[in-house]
Amino acid sequence: MCPLFSNLKEILVLSHFEYTRFQRTYRIKLRENSKGSSMPHYRLTYFQLRGRAETARYIFAYHGIKYEDNRIEWSDWPNIKPTLTFRQVPILEVDGVVINQSAAIARYLARETGLAGNTNLEQAQVDAIADTINDFMNLFPWTEKDQTLKQKMIEDVFINNSNLYLDGIENLLGDKMWFVGDSVTWADFHWAVCSITLTNLKADVLCSHPKLLSLKERVEELPSIAIWIKQRPNTVF
């Protein structure tokens, strides 16, 4: 493709992203006004990591929604853990109401902000993709303390499972810009977040999956997401 037209296409695509985001943000404002109240107070609690809270942070960042990013230091965790109902994070507090489970948090925020899919069928597709990504990520031995054994287990996951999952996820994307519909959803955010972790574990894991790599890059090039990535704390996971 001629470079001029290639650049024009990128400009038009980004313009569409911003217009779509404007529409969603406008709908959020209308919903606030119709309720006669302001945006809820959000408090997201997790460790000083991207991990299971980062997809929610992407949703907040994409819409410029203010929230309290409560990051727990490891030294404080033994005292905080017993105070939590299920002894785990992340949790999201919405005006004091607690939501557990990272996927439930992301789905709630996505529905509130127009990132869940435009129809019930699209929402089911988005959820299925995110759940499949989680199935793959949950195969990794995150809690194994023996580092030699842990590395061996990670290698085994990549050898035995990566093609099955990554081929399937890439097939769901196909030649589309986004996983579902004609605009970004939280499933795209979730993939972008998890793919960072995957490439940290195995640098070349996406070399044989160029469409998934391109999707990661498209998400990271969204202006509000790019700003968040630049300013967020730098952590390994």
TrEMBL record:
Reaction(s) this enzyme catalyzes, per UniProt: RX + glutathione = an S-substituted glutathione + a halide anion + H(+)
Xref: Gene3D superfamilies: 1.20.1050.10, Glutaredoxin (3.40.30.10)
Pfam families the UniProt entry points to: GST_C_3 (PF14497), GST_N (PF02798)
Any GO molecular function: glutathione transferase activity
UniProt keyword Transferase present: yes
UniProt domain GST C-terminal: residue ranges: 119-237
rRNA-binding as UniProt keyword: no
Domain (GST N-terminal) ranges: 40-117
Source taxon at top rank: Eukaryota
Keywords: Transferase
Catalytic EC class: transferase
Enzyme Commission number, as recorded: 2.5.1.18
GO biological process, one term: glutathione metabolic process
PANTHER family linked: GLUTATHIONE S-TRANSFERASE, HEMATOPOIETIC PROSTAGLANDIN D SYNTHASE
Record-given protein name: glutathione transferase
Protein species of origin: Callorhinchus milii
Gene: LOC103184489
